[in-house]
Structure formats: C-alpha cells, structure tokens
Amino acid sequence: MAVYIKLRQILEQKGISQRELARMTGLRASTINHLCSEKVDRVYLETLELICKTLHIRIEDLIEIE
C-alpha cells in the first residue's frame, strides 16, 4: 500500500505558495516543503488536520491511498 500526499497539487490549484501556507498555518517552511516532496515517510495527523482546515479541504482531498 502506498500513501501519497497531494499538497503540491492542491497548492498549485489554489495559487498558494509553500511559504504562504507556512505563514497561514504557523508551520515551519521546511515542514511544508517536506510534505510537498515525493518522499514523505511520516507526518503528524495534527499537521494534516491543520492544513486541511486552513485550505478548507477534506483529508480525503489531501491523501491518496493506492
């Protein structure tokens, strides 16, 4: 089973930069950068929840499981 975080695509669709999302959420820019990379190996659920609330999306929109 593979899990993909589609944050990069969502930010592109919404026209929001990684730096802007970091400012909006209070998360470190390096955290956002990591979540936008192809090699996300672990993430806190609280972080995903904060991102979803900030971007007004559902967790199902952010994560894809294959």
UniProtKB/TrEMBL annotation:
PROSITE patterns: HTH_CROC1 (PS50943). Pfam families: HTH_26 (PF13443). InterPro entries: Cro/C1-type_HTH, Lambda_DNA-bd_dom_sf. SUPFAM superfamilies: lambda repressor-like DNA-binding domains (SSF47413). Residues 7-62 form the HTH cro/C1-type domain. Transmembrane segments: none annotated. One of its GO terms (molecular function) is DNA binding. This is Putative transcriptional regulator. It comes from Aneurinibacillus thermoaerophilus.
